Amino acid sequence: MAREIERKFLLKNQDWKPLAFKQTHFAQGYLNDISDHKAKSSVRVRIEGEQANMNIKSLEIGLSRDEYEYSIPLEDAQKMLNTLTVGPVIEKIRYLVKHDSHTWEIDEFLGDNAGLVVAEVEMTSEADQVPIPDWAGREVTEVVRYYNISLSKYPFKEWNDDEKK
Amino acid sequence: MAREIERKFLLKNQDWKPLAFKQTHFAQGYLNDISDHKAKSSVRVRIEGEQANMNIKSLEIGLSRDEYEYSIPLEDAQKMLNTLTVGPVIEKIRYLVKHDSHTWEIDEFLGDNAGLVVAEVEMTSEADQVPIPDWAGREVTEVVRYYNISLSKYPFKEWNDDEKK
Predict the structure, then answer these.
(1) How do residues B39-92 score in pLDDT, each as one tens digit?
(2) Which end of chain B has the lower number of beta carbons within 10 A, N or C?
(3) Which tens digits make up the pLDDT trace of A4-51?
(4) What chain A residue is nearest to B68 in terms of C-alpha separation?
(5) Does residue B30 carry a catalytic annotation?
(6) Cβ–Cβ contacts within 10 Å for residue A116, how many?
(7) Alpha helices in chain B (DSSP H)
(8) Using a CB-CB distance cutoff of 8 angstroms, which residues of chain B are in contact with residue A76?
C-alpha cells in the first residue's frame, strides 16, 4: 500500500500565482448523507476541469473498500451539484507550480471556503528534503481543520480570526 | 403529460405461465435513505435482464423532477445491490403474456416478496374494455399495499393471512 507523505502550508503572498503552469477547477459534493448511520456508501459527484464523474465508495471499515466510478456529462454534474447535494459543495481552483524538482499544488478555495489558500507538496519519503519556496508561509500539515473532510463540515467562513491566522 | 391507466390483478393459478413469450429478471434498490428528510434525490441501482443502470431522481415536489440515468456494468450493479443498498432490494421476474390485443405484465416477486404474483395490464383510456383472462383473479388496482413503493417498506413476507387473500 502506498502511503502519501505531504506537507501543507499557508501562503505569504500572491507571488506563486504568476508561476503556475496549470490551473484546474474542482467541485465536489455528496448526494447522500454520509454521516447517517444507515449509509453504506458515499455517493459523490466531482468536476475536475472539463471532466465529471460519479463515485460510489463503500463506507465499511476494513482493508478493502469497494469503489465504483463512472464518467458523467459535465452539465449533469453541474446541475446535480447545484440542486441535489446533501451538505456543502467543496469548490476550488488548483494551481500547479514547479519549485526546484517538486511540483506544488496550490488550492484556492471558493464558496464557503473562499479566502482559504493552501499549498501542498508531496514528498518521495519522510527523509525527502523539500526546498521551501519564499511564498510559502506557516506550515499546517498537522492542523486538522485544513483537511478536506473537515472543510466540508466546518468551512473557512465559520472560522474565527484566531483560526484563520 | 401521459397518465398511466393500469389495472392490477392477483392470479388464480399458474395457467398463464406457459403462455409467456418473454421473461426478464428485475432487481432494484436504493443507495441512499429516501425517507431521510435531508435527501434531495433518490439514488437507485436497477438490473433489467442483462442491462444495469444507475438512476438519480430529484425528490422535490413539483411539475418537473430532474432525472439522470447512466448505464453501468452488470457486475457492478450486482455487487452494489448485494452490499450497498439502504432498505430492501425488490427483485422479481417479469413475464409478458398476450391476451387478445393486450399484453399483460406478470410480476413474480422474489426475496422478501417471494410468493407474491401480480398481473398488470395497461389500458389505452379509462373507457378501454380489457378482456380479463381466465387465470386473472381478484382485482387489486386500488389496494395500496401492492404498490412497488409499499412493497419496499412493508414486504409480502410480513403480511398477515388476511392481507395475503
Answers:
(1) 899 999 999 999 999 999 988 766 567 899 999 999 999 999 999 999 889 999
(2) N
(3) 688 999 999 999 999 999 999 999 999 998 887 888 999 999 999 999
(4) A76
(5) yes
(6) 20
(7) 74-83, 148-153, 161-164
(8) 68
Contacts of B62 (CB under 8 A, 6+ apart): none
Give the span between the Cα atoms of A130 and A128, in whole angstroms. 6
Letter string b/e over residues B142-155, b meaning 16 or more CB atoms within 10 A of that residue's CB:
eeeebeeeebbeeb
Instruction: Tell me, yes or no, if B76 comes closer than 8 A to chain A by beta carbon.
Output: yes
A83 touches chain B (CB under 8 A): yes
Question: How far are the Cα atoms of A29, A149, A160, B40 from residue A82, in angstroms, in the given order?
Answer: 9, 20, 27, 11
CB neighbour class for A17 (10 Å; exposed up to 12, middle 13-18, buried from 19): middle
In angstroms, the Cα distances linking B153 to A24, B10, B57 are 44, 20, 19
Q: Is the ipTM of this complex over 0.85?
A: no
A positions 29-58 inside 8 Å of B (CB): 31-33, 36, 38-41, 43, 54, 56, 58
The minimal CB distance from B66 to the residues A31, A38, A79 is found for A79
Give the CB-side neighbour count of residue A91, counting CA atoms within 13 A. Answer: 11
The residue to which cell 499544488 is assigned: A105
Q: Do you know the residue count of chain B?
A: 165
Per-residue pLDDT reduced to its tens digit, A137-154: 999 998 989 987 678 778
